Amino acid sequence: MILNTKREQVGTKKHYTENQNRKRMKTFSIFLISLLLVINGLKSQEYDQALATELGADERGMKSYVLVILKTGPVSVRDKHQRDSIFSGHMQNIGRMSDAGWLVSAGPIGKNERQYRGIYIFDVRTIEEAEKLVLTDPAVSSGLLAAEYYPWYASAALPVHKKYHQKIQKKKIVE
Hints:
With 175 residues, the protein is an alpha+beta fold. Helix content is 52%, strand content 20%.
């Protein structure tokens, strides 16, 4: 009887050890699969020289842009029809500059105490080039908006977002 108890205890220890080994093997398998997924993910993020060259990227994948902050201008137009016409031209001009490849992104800024109204990000080399483009904006040329210009260093991949935006945009901003 004592012999049976010892055998049962030995059997229990053996069973316990097998369970521990299974748990260790399962944990190791999960770790190994996770490691392989991470390595595979890193491979898919390999450097693409052709794309970097096409986008004008430096060794960090960055490039220079001109950031324009549009703010409330010195002129106030009370006539609603005239104001609507100016802002319609503003929106059409944004589309034209974007289609030409100069404007990487644009959009409004929420209400704030600095009277900032929106931004432009231009894919041009100099502030002078951006100034010439901004002057084609009826809202700026009329004085409803004024512009501040800043050199800006950011990802060279910014211009590629437009092709994805078109795929997720149900309604056009300007018809």
